[in-house]
Every structure is written in C-alpha cells, then in structure tokens.
C-alpha cells in the first residue's frame, strides 16, 4: 500500500502495475479499490471509466467516506469533458458527494477543502455560496489550522483582498511547509514580489526533498528566467523537468522549452536558445511567446 501511495503521488506509471497486484491479492479491499480508481483518474483518456468505477464503489460501500470523496474527484475530472447540460446535471452530484463524505467523516479535510472550492467557484444555481464557503473555512480553522489559513487565502483572493490572501497563504506554508499546494503558492507569491532569494529557497528545498516534483523543477527554472539569476541552474532545472513524464496539471513541455530558450538567451547562448525555441514551436507552431522570443534573436 505504501509503495502504491508513493508511486501515485509521483504519478509514476509503475503505480498501475503495483495496484493491479494489490487488487489481485485483495479484490474486496475498499482501500485497494480506491487506489485502482486513483490510477484511472491519472489518465486523462479514462475519465468516463473512472467515473463508472467510482459510482460502483459508492454503491458497494455507501458508508465509506473516502469512496464519496473520490467519487467527487471523478466527477471533477469528467465535468470538463461533457456538454453544458451534462455539467449542470453533474455539478450537484459532485457537491453532494463531498457533503456526504463529510457527513460520514467530519475530519476528512481534503473533502472539506474541495467543498470550499466548490462553493466559491460554482454558480448559485448549482449550489455555489460564499456564505457556505465561509462556514467550511470556520470548520477548517477549528479542525486543521493550516488548511484554515489556506481557505482564508482562497476567500480573500476571491474577494480581491490580495494582501490578506498572501498573508494567509504564507501562514499555511509556514505551518505545513511540505504541502505541495502551499509550497507552490508560496513560491509564486515570492516570484510576484520579486523576492528572488525566498522564491529560490522554496523551490531549491522542494526539489532537494522530492526530485520527482516536476512543478518544482519548472518553477525553479522560471525563477531563474524572471530574476535573470542562476541561469545555468535554471537551464538544468528545465532539463530535469523535461526528463519527467508530462503530467496533467503541470506545465506542458512546449512551455518548458520556451522558458529554457529564454534562460539560454539571457545567458548569451543564442545558438542553444534558438534550438530550444524551435523545439517549443515544433510542439506548438502557434505559441506566440516562443515566436516573439525567437524573433528577438
């Protein structure tokens, strides 16, 4: 189980094989069935199959809170791939899955954080509500203060109170510095403030602790480009990023090649910069940023 969890966290393709072996040995184990579902959810081409599996799991385990949480995640993965009518039908199901997960386990904080996001982002006609979001934040503050800070940051950002948002986000990161979401948010806050030493520190530490953290490598390289500092390390960071499998939710490889071209140009290596930018354009001939950078050379 621990090996499967680690591989899923890294989005390692070997996770499917490990989870399949677990499922063969323990076919009725609901925790293993959740792992099977998570394997499917990491494949953007299998969202419909993942939703079917999640619905079957909830039917079989109606009192198991994680089943409802992962059903909500399956709806979230699927909802962007269906038409507007289907989205309007699916959104309340997503919300109810999260609400049911919390009825069964009020300390399932991942479900509460997701429900908070739903209330902030969904239109009122399908249950969106800022006041309901506030109620979830209050519960998070009571039950899990770092998540409470992050929730306060999300609400402040939604209400365009950006100084408050940054303060709460950084408080969440300070309280739980190994959390990937908090790390990413803190690093980007430091980038936006042009506090380059702190931005580098966040991504240096992250890549040291988790060498397969693709987003951290990308942001380390991006910090080098934005600051004009440590450009050789920035190029190396983009190479590390590109050596990892392309993953949903992470920057596309075309953007990494474009940013690497920027770093190489800033470092004075125009020939290598041209090669990187041409590689970016081979992946997307319409990438305007890469075209503009190539024109400068």
TrEMBL record:
<feature type="repeat" description="TPR">
    <location>
        <begin position="254"/>
        <end position="287"/>
    </location>
</feature>
<dbReference type="InterPro" id="IPR019734">
    <property type="entry name" value="TPR_rpt"/>
</dbReference>
<dbReference type="Pfam" id="PF13432">
    <property type="entry name" value="TPR_16"/>
</dbReference>
<dbReference type="InterPro" id="IPR011990">
    <property type="entry name" value="TPR-like_helical_dom_sf"/>
</dbReference>
<protein>
    <recommendedName>
        <fullName>Tetratricopeptide repeat protein</fullName>
    </recommendedName>
</protein>
<keyword id="KW-0802">TPR repeat</keyword>
